[in-house]
UniProtKB/TrEMBL annotation:
<dbReference type="InterPro" id="IPR035906">
    <property type="entry name" value="MetI-like_sf"/>
</dbReference>
<feature type="transmembrane region" description="Helical">
    <location>
        <begin position="27"/>
        <end position="46"/>
    </location>
</feature>
<keyword id="KW-0813">Transport</keyword>
<feature type="transmembrane region" description="Helical">
    <location>
        <begin position="247"/>
        <end position="265"/>
    </location>
</feature>
<dbReference type="Pfam" id="PF00528">
    <property type="entry name" value="BPD_transp_1"/>
</dbReference>
<feature type="transmembrane region" description="Helical">
    <location>
        <begin position="138"/>
        <end position="159"/>
    </location>
</feature>
<protein>
    <submittedName>
        <fullName>Amino acid ABC transporter permease</fullName>
    </submittedName>
</protein>
<dbReference type="InterPro" id="IPR000515">
    <property type="entry name" value="MetI-like"/>
</dbReference>
<feature type="domain" description="ABC transmembrane type-1">
    <location>
        <begin position="70"/>
        <end position="265"/>
    </location>
</feature>
<dbReference type="InterPro" id="IPR043429">
    <property type="entry name" value="ArtM/GltK/GlnP/TcyL/YhdX-like"/>
</dbReference>
<keyword id="KW-0029">Amino-acid transport</keyword>
<feature type="transmembrane region" description="Helical">
    <location>
        <begin position="74"/>
        <end position="96"/>
    </location>
</feature>
<dbReference type="InterPro" id="IPR010065">
    <property type="entry name" value="AA_ABC_transptr_permease_3TM"/>
</dbReference>
<keyword id="KW-0472">Membrane</keyword>
<keyword id="KW-1003">Cell membrane</keyword>
<keyword id="KW-0812">Transmembrane</keyword>
<feature type="transmembrane region" description="Helical">
    <location>
        <begin position="180"/>
        <end position="201"/>
    </location>
</feature>
Amino acid sequence: MTAGDTELQPHAKGLTRRQKRRLSRGAQYVVFVAAVVALAVTADWGRLKNQFAQWDIARQMFPDVITLALKNTVLYTVSGFVVGLALGMVIALMRLSSVGPYRWLAGIYIEIFRGLPALLIFIFIGVAVPLAFPGTEIVGGTYGKVALALGLVAAAYMAETIRAGIQAVPKGQMEAARSLGFSPARAMVSIIVPQAFRIILPPLTNELVLLFKDSSLVLFLGVTLEERELSKFGRDLASTTANSTPILVAGLCYLLITIPLGFVVRRMEAKAQEAVK
């Protein structure tokens, strides 16, 4: 008797295991649909429309919401990602170093910046640094401050991701490179790191998605009208109009970036799994 035949064997209550699973899944669908219908029936759609869907207010946001707010959000995010990736690579290599102090410093950095909320890092960059170093300006003004703050936060996570990717590369790759006359440093840069990045590309893209949302913390640095990102832009207009429609429009603009990136991540993960098979 095969395993499939066993599943089809009737039990004491007259249902097979497969039938019970189907019945349980069907009950879950029914509960889900009932909950959605209940929410749809009980919600006050008129009040929601008045507060979040005033199209005349939404039209006033264009084109600035794209040409100013979304553009700044993208600039902040990409600059923070570049800083985080560069710093994360250095920290990851320190973490893997045979030199004890390098490993300790990298470990301390990772634990501190993974443990602190990103908000505190922004406040530190915007308040503590000017107090500690009077008259010193971070290159790039607000854009430089945001890149540094986001980069410091992202580097702690990226460092661990890069370290895991490097360690996932078979050790034989390094041995083969050394046998061909490569120095350890050259073998790491030319052979190991490129292979590691193919492995860690999906989680790094996920980190980019997270940075898009963290860029909303730029308001704690104090920005001008021309330096506002999506969240600040939406909140300012919501306060001016006494309506939440700008918040909804800003949220939809975030989705214009994060949903395609999420699709790209899923495609990369699927291709990575196919390559493994």
